[in-house]
Amino acid sequence: MTTTEHQSASPTSPSDAVTAGAHATESARSGLSNLRGPGSGEVDQQRIATVVGAALEGIRAAIREHEVTYEEFDAFKRWLIAVSDTGEWPLFLDVYLEHEVEKVAAKRQQGSVGTILGPFWLDGQVQLDTPATLPMRDDEPGTPMILAGQVTATDGTPLAGATVDIWHTDDEGWYSGFASKPPAGNLRGVVRCDDQGRFEIHTRKPAPYTIPLDGPTGQLTQAAGWSPWRPAHIHLLVAAPGHRTLTSQLFFTGDPYLGNDVASADKPELTLDPQPTGRGDEIRADRDFVLEPGSDD
Ligand SMILES: [Fe+2]
């Protein structure tokens, strides 16, 4: 197994945290600058002193309050080195800290509720016109699922030219591009909506999964006795010209890991309740998205 975020219901699934971590690190280096804009590039000395100073003081306070020993301090150093060696910084940061950054950003945002991006978005996936079927294997396991809806502006105007970039795990919790099992591009795509902003995406329902347990992030999680599970979810980037791209995830009612997401990314507003379509075991969920004016810079 070569995923950085993997399902572990099957203890026979091997994981290669180093390989997956390298992929996630490379993706973070190359893709995120395009996704979120280049930034100002300016160094704000006061801002650095304030934010980094507060973060360091939080750690110092923990050391004082809990009387951290040299043995624990050295174990901390070794763990930090392991996170670097395995390329798990994107995983660790996105699992344990990104949700707080997202909440800060959300305070000044309008439109549909979003959540974290996570470390497993990949740029340059296949572009498809709606109604679209995501790339999948001939014998792709899992429940056939349709996700459909409409993308509009905050005033209700349908957004022609909208796109829905979608990625999720397969029925066993593996991400293509980060795991050896699914082929490249599996269950990933960028769907072009129609001239009314409508989309219809045919895929498979994803599965809950754990973060990888063989790397330092998973090892820390288990050592602390925390749950490593993420509820099943679909990742989305909903975009339209002249509007801020919405980063979101959609979850499923009844998922046993809702409310106990290791990444703290689930929100009640993001839960789907798919219903049977009557065609075999196929299910369908409808979800509209509202984008606010603006850009991603
Ligand atoms: Fe995910």
TrEMBL record:
<keyword id="KW-0223">Dioxygenase</keyword>
<feature type="region of interest" description="Disordered">
    <location>
        <begin position="1"/>
        <end position="42"/>
    </location>
</feature>
<dbReference type="Pfam" id="PF04444">
    <property type="entry name" value="Dioxygenase_N"/>
</dbReference>
<dbReference type="Pfam" id="PF00775">
    <property type="entry name" value="Dioxygenase_C"/>
</dbReference>
<dbReference type="InterPro" id="IPR050770">
    <property type="entry name" value="Intradiol_RC_Dioxygenase"/>
</dbReference>
<feature type="compositionally biased region" description="Basic and acidic residues">
    <location>
        <begin position="279"/>
        <end position="290"/>
    </location>
</feature>
<keyword id="KW-0560">Oxidoreductase</keyword>
<keyword id="KW-0408">Iron</keyword>
<dbReference type="InterPro" id="IPR007535">
    <property type="entry name" value="Catechol_dOase_N"/>
</dbReference>
<feature type="compositionally biased region" description="Polar residues">
    <location>
        <begin position="1"/>
        <end position="16"/>
    </location>
</feature>
<comment type="similarity">
    <text>Belongs to the intradiol ring-cleavage dioxygenase family.</text>
</comment>
<dbReference type="InterPro" id="IPR043029">
    <property type="entry name" value="1_2-CTD_multi_dom"/>
</dbReference>
<feature type="domain" description="Intradiol ring-cleavage dioxygenases">
    <location>
        <begin position="147"/>
        <end position="175"/>
    </location>
</feature>
<dbReference type="InterPro" id="IPR000627">
    <property type="entry name" value="Intradiol_dOase_C"/>
</dbReference>
<protein>
    <submittedName>
        <fullName>Catechol 1,2-dioxygenase</fullName>
    </submittedName>
</protein>
<dbReference type="InterPro" id="IPR015889">
    <property type="entry name" value="Intradiol_dOase_core"/>
</dbReference>
<keyword id="KW-0479">Metal-binding</keyword>
<feature type="region of interest" description="Disordered">
    <location>
        <begin position="263"/>
        <end position="297"/>
    </location>
</feature>
